[in-house]
Amino acid sequence: MGVKGGLHTTGAKWFMIESQRHSYHLVDPSPWPISGSLGALATTVGGVMYMHSFQGGATLLSLGLIFLLYTMFVWWRDVLRESTLEGHHTKAVQLGPRYGSILFIVSEVMFLFAFFWASSHSSLAPTVEIGGIWPPKGIGVLDPWEIPLLNTPILPSSGAAVTWAHHAILAGKEKRAVYALVATVSLALVSTGFQGMEYYQAPSTISDSIYGSTFFLATGFHGFHVIIGTLFLIVCGIRQYLGHLTKKHHVGFEAAAWYWHFVDVVRLFPFVSIYWWGGI
Amino acid sequence: MASAAARSGLRSLAARAKAPAPARRPMSSSAHDDAYETAKWEKITIVAAVSCTLLAAWNLSKGHPHYDEPPAYPYLHIRNKEFPWGPNGLFETKHDH
């Protein structure tokens, strides 16, 4: 078996596994795509059944969600094993999750854009059915200078903390990076707590006119993204604590940081357009 | 075969020619700079967190307003069908607080 050209002639240091003569990761067969699909099917069918009060709908929905969450857990566990323990995530392989994360965030921007569009569409030319004014007649709105104002700088502060974590990882300050991620997640949890408090005290509900619909859809989906980003950062914090992230290889952390900056910057839009302009 | 060997030789030459370029990350140059940036962003985080705490203390000490029940306009409290969990719950009228 002679050497037949190709990248491996430049040195074995390019490879974690001697027998592999390329830098791509050929994945093993996995049960998770089909189990995730079945979980999603049970969730949607169960969700429709539940919302239409069919018998067993709640059970099917719960089982579907549990199945889906289980699949997410074991699938990502496998990816972490492949990258961290088996060394399959070469520079070439890392491009995949990088492009994937960027495209995912772009799609999230479009998703939230639609809700702000709906809010602007309804508020810029309010219809006669809601009194021709915005906020609609009879709707009590939150004072933007109370909890909404308070909640707005908390997320960018958390963004500063994640930048601190990033530089700490690049500088090899492992403990500092863990502290920084604890700070990031703490600020995120405080923000979610205030959002919950604000919803509890809000004078209107999602069933109160187009105002309630657009307000709770936009702010609620933003809050949901804050929760997803928080979970993502918690996973990064645990991985940093366990020593998974190195100076040169921390794609998961970078994706979490990008996502987090997206979430904290997006917060400014509902504050200005929905709470402030739309509330007075 | 000969052309494959030639290609291979050319490739390793090319690889050797561009090998010495040190791996640098964009936006962050050396470990020293990263240490400096770490300290800087730690300070920014602390200042930001303290400011948020002060804002929270001032904001929460003001108390919150109470709202009067609005007239029963048709676009308020919309109920087109019962919720799966029954008439009461998540979207029902708020309690006084």
From TrEMBL, chain A:
SUPFAM superfamilies: Cytochrome c oxidase subunit III-like. It catalyses: 4 Fe(II)-[cytochrome c] + O2 + 8 H(+)(in) = 4 Fe(III)-[cytochrome c] + 2 H2O + 4 H(+)(out). It is a multi-pass membrane protein. The chain crosses the membrane at residues 58-76, 96-118, 177-195, 215-238, 258-278. GO terms for biological process: mitochondrial electron transport, cytochrome c to oxygen. The keyword Hydrolase does not apply. It holds the Pfam family COX3. Belongs to the cytochrome c oxidase subunit 3 family. GO terms for molecular function: cytochrome-c oxidase activity. This is Cytochrome c oxidase subunit 3. It comes from Digitaria exilis. Component of the cytochrome c oxidase (complex IV, CIV), a multisubunit enzyme composed of a catalytic core of 3 subunits and several supernumerary subunits. The complex exists as a monomer or a dimer and forms supercomplexes (SCs) in the inner mitochondrial membrane with ubiquinol-cytochrome c oxidoreductase (cytochrome b-c1 complex, complex III, CIII). Gene3D superfamilies: 1.10.287.70, Cytochrome c oxidase, subunit III, four-helix bundle. One of its GO terms (cellular component) is mitochondrial inner membrane.
UniProtKB/TrEMBL annotation, chain B:
Coiled coil: none annotated. The keyword Mitochondrion applies. Keywords: Membrane, Mitochondrion, Mitochondrion inner membrane, Transit peptide. The keyword Repressor does not apply. InterPro entries: Cyt_c_oxidase_su6a, Cyt_c_oxidase_su6a_sf. One of its GO terms (molecular function) is enzyme regulator activity. SUPFAM superfamilies: Mitochondrial cytochrome c oxidase subunit VIa. GO terms for cellular component: mitochondrial inner membrane. Residues 1-32 are annotated as: Disordered. Gene3D superfamilies: Cytochrome c oxidase, subunit VIa. It is found in: Mitochondrion inner membrane. Residues 1-30 have a biased composition (Low complexity). Belongs to the cytochrome c oxidase subunit 6A family. This is Uncharacterized protein. It comes from Lolium multiflorum. The lineage of its organism: Eukaryota, Viridiplantae, Streptophyta, Embryophyta, Tracheophyta.
